[in-house]
Write a structure and sequence with these properties.
By secondary structure, this protein is mostly helical. It contains 35 helices and no strands. The N and C termini lie far apart (98 Å).
């Protein structure tokens, strides 16, 4: 798992590659590709322009991949006009008819590299440039010319990617795409092909995000064929194929889901299959589909709990993904999303939290546990979390649930986490700089809010409370509170505020809740709490909190109203007036929305399908939950009215809510008239649904076929296990052979390389010899001319030589005489050296005598001195 420092270094390194501020080479490649794209779009039938366009895309793709990994928000893309214009040309080129297949492959590869791991870019390309429409156009109109098998696979993969979790506008083009996708799925030859997972994923995304898709399938009579095909695909060997098929069966065929899959051992096997895909699948979208399917299973947790599915052993592999997938922010975000959905369910929260805090290190070489990995992700700042700026906030929420689990079970936080690190995390969150003009103001505000919630949770632990009070001191609380009061756009007469406004309201009440909780332990916090409640600017925040749909926020507001010492209760009447004004505005907005929904409903007439039954079931469940909540609320109101310790503040609060209820009742009466008009249509749907009951016998036959397929699959699994062992042995042998061949190949390549080097050297030597030969020929001609001149010069030199030789003879005789003189001088010098030696010996004797004389003299002085 990346440490916090490693995450920051990674973010800073990748931010150096941002498109608007890249190096000159990056800008040059972008501008070159943009220029070629303009020329190509101006004359798309000129094949000579496609080759430089392909080369430009090939050069730009690696740098664009690095750039995409640093994108934190849409403003990073829109700040560069060249990038926006280039995306526009890319979207236009895809829709052109009969473009070269090689160019289309380069464009698909470019889009894949920049959008595969960055959901921000995917949403931008879809909303801004409708990339789904462009890909659908290419799929429908270029099937015969540009879409070979490779391009078809790339196009379907991209369409699968861009339809995931993104609503698609239904049109005739999308119906053509649906027809083609269903045809490919029903094609038996494509069962083991590379396009089958993508086709199933596209169909799944359209059925989930586009209501008209399932209606269209039912109106075309293709659901029965798909039902039989899905049953056979459940025995496929591909993980993406199996998980997409399983999700389609669960979402589209609820009779099979409730009667076959959610029963007995099948439920446990399905859970194991989903977890196996989440942990081991190499496909990003297959893992996402598996997570979504597991979240839907958690909503029916009663069956899962009855079968003993949730255990530490079954959930720990999912927890380990938080460590092993540290370099994939979107995967980490999806895993955290799974934990958040599961922790919201009261029945399964304990299982997931216990598995998270008790999971050991995923790697034997590192000591990072999943819970430590969550803390490290939470330490990131939103603007330093590329691709997923909400990753730190999700991590803090998961950490909040984990710490809450430890405190509820009376466990020490320090046994699982470093308290110093967690307290430092709280400080970093609360000291996040908020700028209302910053594009990540929502994520940063959310980080402050989550940091305050975490501080409240930690303050319940007596061993950490002192450190929390030192970090979250009154000055910091006052700064956070005053910033929201002065800059939050929560107005008195408008409900359409900025995206971060509601988070700001929650921050205010979390600060007040923290101060209220700590007032018994710290006098400065208590004094600040009393001062903040007296601020008149706080009233709109109370109104916004009371009419919100957040039950935790409403509980905090009511708790503060009832516990305040006269500051807020004195303004109850003012708050009630503000609430009535706000409710009236909300009422008009909801009526306008309902009219728009009714218009849209009239445009798309309902078609009887299996999803209609599921929608009615969901409505019945919601109504049942609402009735239970209403009964509990009535009982609570009766207890409050009968309470003898009730003061005037509760009656004023109930009057406010009675005004709210009366407004809601008037709205319900208006909506009831619309409901009557739809009952008739619903009866028609019930009649059409009755026709599906006759399919019971066919369902039984399919169930028997499913059992036979499962038996064959088990037998096939045994056979495949044996074949797998044989294949593994063969693979090991082949690997040894491959290693030997690689060594031989390397030797041959080295030999070829040496031969090439010698050949180049010989060529260079031959060229040098030719040049030297020409030079030698020229020199030979010049030497002939010089030879005559040399002969003349030689004759002159000969005469001079004879004269010089005579002089030399005379000089030799002089040398002989001088040598004899030198010999005589040497003899005389030797005699003189002997004389010198004798003198030196005499001098040495005299010096010795002088030394002895001086010693005798010193002895005499010493003797005379003593006397």
């Amino acid at each position: 798992m990346f440490s916090t420092l490693e995450w920051h270094l990674f973010a800073f390194e990748t931010l150096e590659y941002t498109m608007p501020n890249t190096e000159p080479s990056m800008n040059d490649m972008l501008l070159n590709a943009l220029s070629i794209a303009r020329q190509f779009c101006a004359n798309p039938f000129d094949r000579d322009l496609s080759y430089p366009f392909e080369a430009a895309l090939k050069d730009l793709t690696p740098s664009a991949n690095l750039w995409s990994q640093s994108i934190v928000n849409v403003h990073d893309v829109e700040n560069s006009g060249a990038v926006v214009e280039f995306f526009q040309y890319i979207s236009s080129v895809i829709q052109l008819p009969n473009i070269p297949a090689s160019l289309l492959a380069k464009i698909f590869h470019f889009i894949f590299e920049i959008a595969w791991y960055n959901p921000i870019l995917r949403v931008y390309l879809e909303k801004k440039w409708r990339i789904n429409y462009a890909l659908s156009t290419c799929l429908v109109y270029n099937k015969s010319f540009s879409l070979n098998e490779q391009n078809l696979s790339l196009c379907l993969n991209l369409l699968h990617l861009f339809t995931y979790d993104i609503p698609v506008l239904w049109s005739n083009l999308m119906s053509s795409v649906m027809d083609y996708i269903v045809l490919r799925i029903l094609d038996s030859d494509a069962e083991n092909g590379s396009v089958m997972p993508s086709c199933l994923g596209i169909l799944l995304n359209l059925c989930l995000n586009t209501p008209q898709a399932l209606c269209y399938l039912n109106s075309q009579g293709k659901l029965n064929s798909l039902r039989r095909k899905f049953v056979s695909l459940l025995a496929a060997d591909s993980m993406p194929t199996v998980i997409c098929t399983l999700a389609l069966v669960c979402y589209c065929f609820q009779d099979i889901r409730n009667k076959k899959l959610f029963v007995g051992k099948n439920l446990l096997e399905m859970f194991k299959c989903i977890v196996n895909v989440i942990v081991k699948s190499d496909s990003l979208l297959a893992r996402f589909h598996a997570v979504d399917l597991l979240i839907s299973l958690v909503k029916s947790s009663s069956n899962l709990l009855a079968n003993g599915v949730f255990t530490n052993q079954s959930l720990s592999p999912i927890c380990e993904l938080l460590v092993t997938r540290s370099g994939q922010p979107e995967t980490l975000s999806k895993i955290l999303e799974l934990f958040l959905h599961c922790c919201k369910a009261d029945d399964v929260r304990e299982f997931f939290c216990d598995a998270l805090v008790n999971a050991g290190p995923a790697d034997s070489k590192r000591l990072t546990t999943p819970i430590i990995a969550v803390v490290e992700m939470a330490m990131l700042a939103p603007d330093l979390s590329p691709c997923c700026p909400d990753l730190p906030c999700k991590s803090i929420r998961v950490l909040h649930y984990a710490i809450s689990h430890l405190l509820e079970n009376k466990l020490r936080i320090s046994d699982y986490l470093s308290c110093e690190v967690v307290v430092q995390l709280v400080e970093d969150c609360l000291k996040t700089t908020l700028d209302t003009s910053h594009p990540l103001i929502f994520e940063k505000s959310e980080r402050v809010y989550e940091g305050m919630r975490l501080a409240i949770m930690l303050s319940y632990d007596s061993t950490v409370r002192t450190d929390v009070l030192e970090i979250v001191h009154p000055a910091l609380c006052s700064h956070i509170f005053q910033f929201q009061l002065s800059s939050n756009c929560c107005t008195l007469t408008s409900t359409s505020n900025a995206s971060w406004s509601f988070i700001g309201v929650k921050i205010v009440f979390e600060v007040l809740t923290f101060l209220d909780n700590q007032s018994a332990f710290s006098k400065p916090h208590s004094l600040l709490y009393d001062d903040l409640l007296k601020d008149q600017r706080l009233l709109p925040f109370f109104v916004c909190g009371l009419i919100s749909n957040d039950e935790c926020l409403i509980a905090n507001v009511l708790s503060l109203i009832t516990s305040a010492h006269g500051a807020i209760p004195s303004h109850i009447q003012h708050i009630a007036k503000l609430m009535s004004l706000w409710i009236q505005e909300l009422k008009s907005e909801k009526l306008q929305e309902s009219n728009e929904v009714k218009i849209n409903y009239d445009k798309f007439s309902p078609v009887a399908d299996l999803s209609a039954a599921s929608e009615r079931n969901n409505i019945n469940i919601k109504n049942f939950v609402d009735e239970q909540q209403i009964k509990e609320l009535d009982v609570l109101l009766e207890k409050l009215k009968c309470s003898q310790t009730l003061d005037g503040r509760f009656s004023e609060i109930m009057n406010v809510y009675e005004m709210k209820i009366s407004a809601i009742e008037s709205e319900n009466r208006q909506l009831q008239t619309e409901l009557y008009s739809r009952i008739f249509n619903q009866q028609k749907n019930d009649c059409s649904f009755a026709r599906f009951i006759s399919f019971g016998e066919e369902a039984k036959k399919e169930a028997e076929m499913l059992r036979q397929v499962l038996r064959k699959a088990e037998q096939k699994n045994d056979d495949l296990s044996e074949e797998l062992k044989q294949k593994l042995s063969e693979i090991s042998e082949q690997q040894c052979r491959i290693e030997q061949l690689k060594k031989r190949l390397d030797e041959k390549l080295n030999l070829v390389e040496s031969l090439r080097n010698t050949e180049n050297a010989l060529r260079k030597q031959a060229e040098c010899l030719e040049a030297s030969l020409e030079v030698a020929q020229k020199e030979a001609e010049s030497e002939k001319i010089m030879h005559g001149q040399i002969r003349e010069h030689y004759s002159k030199m000969k005469v001079n030589f004879e004269a010089v030789s005579a002089r030399l003879i005379e000089a030799k005789e002089d040398i002989k005489r001088m040598r004899s003189n030198i010999e005589k001088l040497k003899v005389d010098n030797a005699k003189q050296e002997e004389v010198n030696d004798q003198l030196m010996s005499k001098i040495a004797n005299l010096e010795e005598e002088l030394r002895k004389h001086s010693e005798i003299q010193e002895m005499i002085h010493k003797l005379t001195g003593r006397q």
